[in-house]
Amino acid sequence: MRLEDYDYALPPDRIARHPAKQRDESRLLVVERATGQLHHCCFREIGGFLREGDLLVLNDSRVIPARLYARRHPGGGRVEILLVREIEPLFWLALVRPGKKIQKGDRLVIAAGRFEAWVVGYGGKGERLVRFETEGSDWLELLERYGHTPLPPYILKARKRVNEPPDDTAEDRQRYQTVYAAVPGSVAAPTAGFHFTEQLMTELGQRGVEFARVTLHVGPGTFQPLTDEHLRSCQLHEEYYSLEAGEVEKINRAHSEDRRLIPVGTTSVRVLESACDSEGRFVARSDVTRLLISAGFQFRLADAMITNFHLPRSSLLLLVCAFAGRETVLRAYEEAIDHGYRFYSYGDAMMIV
To answer: How far is the C-alpha of 192 from the C-alpha of 277, rounded, in Å?
Structure first.
């Protein structure tokens, strides 16, 4: 397999800088795997492609305001901290900039006397191990007050290209999040769920569509380019996931009754395929996954999939191509570009059936 086979040309103006005015106003491209036929519609019409008894599997991880700005003490230089993964309460693996200047023992002041951090060690890929001091305040409350939405680099670059302020806005705080987000921990959003509204979910439920929830905390590694080492090892960066007993029961029941399991997003796919045994059965568990899904992967559970349009040469695009076929997916992408679809996190959606 060659990464260049998963490349395509995207005009810069196709990168969505902002979300659609209404979540379910996004466009939806439906791809039939068996025939290659494509259907163009609006996301709020997705019920026409769902059946009574379908089980949509949602990733309910909540994006935290994971980008912090601090002053190095002593010295006063500005430092950017991007949280990567929680090691234990108040201890995080983080990316810092400027990285070469930040060393073990440095004190980083986010809000003097209220919210500070100490660099206490190093990660294996240039990260820093950071211990936060909250002076008795609630950690998540401080994050909400002083943190910023960790928008993807391609959104920030697209805004800068048209002279828009790159910083996150009140709109980003609300919309770079699914309406069903519940468990704080992601530093990048499970974006396929952006298009669902509470009303749409209620309407689908009234038509007999069911929902199950899993949790996978998305890390910033999702934006990193794939390398030959990733392909050789079939492993990605480590991400935490969790399945609770009640949700496991829903998934196992639907699978045993031959009802369609439809993961919403590549993160939900990776949880399903990471957590099941050889017979496709689940147990409640918390673990980490490094699963890279690429050509030749044997899907055990996903019968259809809802996803967004992904970056060239990315692990997300490889997963979608493994599910629907590379030629089918790239042809669908080409048609989406020709029809003016918007791409990436704030862009439009695709459903593969």
So the answer is: 26
CB of 31 closer than 8 Å to CB of 329: yes
Q: With bands split at pLDDT 50, 70 and 90, how would you rate the model's confidence at 229?
A: confident
* Strand intervals (E) in the chain: 27-31, 38-42, 55-59, 61-63, 67-73, 78-88, 91-97, 107-111, 115-122, 128-133, 183-186, 210-216, 235-243, 261-263, 285-291, 305-308, 349-352
Instruction: For residue 3, give every residue at least 6 positions away whose Cβ sits within 8 Å of its Cβ, in sequence order, or none.
Output: 226, 228, 231, 313
Count of beta carbons in the 10 Å neighbourhood of residue 154:
19
Count the neighbouring beta carbons within 10 Å of the beta carbon of residue 190: 28
The whole-angstrom separation of Cα 22 and Cα 271 is 28
* Residue 244, SS3 per DSSP: coil
Burial of 180 (0-12, 13-18, 19+ CB in 10 A): middle
* CA distances in angstroms from 65 to 112, 150, 185, 194, listed in the order given: 19, 6, 10, 17
> Tokens in use for 345?
């996190």
8 A C-beta contact, residue 28 and residue 351: yes
Strand partners, 239: 289
Where would I find the beta strands (DSSP E) of 138-234?
A: 183-186, 210-216
Domains of the chain plus CATH, in order, are 3-63+170-352 (3.40.1780.10), 67-146 (2.40.10.240)
The per-residue pLDDT for range 170-202, each reduced to its tens digit, is 999 999 999 999 999 999 999 999 999 999 999
In tens, the pLDDT along 135-148 reads 889 999 999 999 99
Residue 280 has pLDDT above 80, yes or no: no
221 pLDDT band, cuts 50/70/90, is confident
CA angle 237, 242, 243 (to 5 degrees): 140
Selection from 20, 40, 17, 45 nearest residue 30 by Cα = 40
